[in-house]
Amino acid sequence: MVAIAAPRYGRSLHPIHAILLAFPFPLFLGALVSDLAYWNTFQIQWSNFSSWLIAGGLLGGGLAMLWALVDLIRFRGTRGLQPLMYFVVLLAMFVLGFINALVHAKDAWAIMPEGLYLSAITTLLALVAAWIGYSGFRSREYA
């Protein structure tokens, strides 16, 4: 008798959760680009753009994080460590994004270089969260 190892996949993202997860990365990336433009030109409007983009990223990211928390509680222990890691990355993205929003609330001349660094880290965390979320939550393989 031959044992065939077939991967068994857990639940993938709900379509609404996937739409919510699509917002943070491009919005935080736009904030990073706006911060880079402000770093080079010192035109205050770039700081305003960045603040609004961060607010949008926090809104989409917060809703995706809330959905991930509900999924984590509902399917506790059935899908391994990946959903927990996904939630933790979303939480870190949200916390650093909120701190970034507070930094951008200061006077435009006072946000550099902290705002730029926080925007870069938040963008990287949003990319990692999207990578984990869209890769699917796989469970173990059976033999």
UniProtKB/TrEMBL annotation:
One Pfam family cited in the UniProt record for this chain: DUF2231
Protein name: Membrane protein
Domain DUF2231: 14-133
Entry annotated with the keyword Nucleus: no
Family annotation (InterPro entries): DUF2231_TM, UCP029509
Organism: Agaricicola taiwanensis
Membrane-spanning segments: 18-39, 51-72, 84-103, 115-137
Keyword set, alphabetical order: Membrane, Transmembrane, Transmembrane helix
